[in-house]
Amino acid sequence: MSGMSFSSGKQHVKPPQRGIFPLDHDSECKPAMEKYLDCLKDERDLHHKCRDLSKEYLQCRMDHQLMAKEDMNNMGYSEEAQVKEAKEYDKSKEREGYVAGKHIDKPNRWWWQRGDKKDWSS
User: Fold this and answer.
1) How far apart (Å, rounded) are the C-alpha atoms in residues 47 and 81?
2) How far apart are CA 39 and CA 28, in angstroms?
3) Model pTM above 0.70
4) Residue whose C-alpha is closest to residue 68's, from 19, 34, 114, 112
5) How many Cβ atoms sit within 10 Å of the Cβ of residue 58?
6) Exposed, middle or buried: residue 96 (CB in 10 Å: 0-12, 13-18, 19+)?
7) 3-state SS of the chain?
8) In this structure, are residues 51 and 86 in contact, taking their beta carbons and an 8 Å threshold?
9) Distance between CA atoms of residues 64 and 72, nearest Å
10) CA distance linking residue 71 with residue 62, whole number of Å
11) Could you report the per-residue pLDDT of 50-68, keeping only the tens digit for each?
12) Furthest-apart CA pair in the chain: how many Å?
């Protein structure tokens, strides 16, 4: 019986889309990161409300050569990409007892289980 070898082929590792992000060992951008994370916590993870702080944090990382310099517009910080008039879903239907899919009361059947048999021989 032949043994199985899981390392028979070379594994290909895909690099990050925007390059390598070194760790901030000297904590040069830690204050900007903490402000951004505090904002996310205060805003219940609605990132579009903390957009300026995330931009500031990324700019700090670029300025301290912790990531490659990139145009902020290409990173989603252009005026066109800005989230405007976003409304948070209030879950009012769920509070009233709504359950998704519960309104569908007919049994779900596959095509071969349905009663509308077709004659494919003709």
Assistant:
1) 13
2) 19
3) no
4) 19
5) 20
6) exposed
7) CCCCCCCCCCCCCCCCCCCCCCCCCCCCCHHHHHHHHHHHHHCCCCHHHHHHHHHHHHHHHHHCCCCCCCCHHHHCCCCCCCCCCCCCCCCHHHHCCCCCCCCCCCCCCCCCCCCCCCCCCC
8) no
9) 16
10) 10
11) 999 999 999 999 999 888 8
12) 78
Rg of the Cα atoms in the chain: 26
Residue type (1 letter), 79? E
Written as six digits, the tokens of 60 are: 């700090």
What tokens does 9 get?
Answer: 């082929």
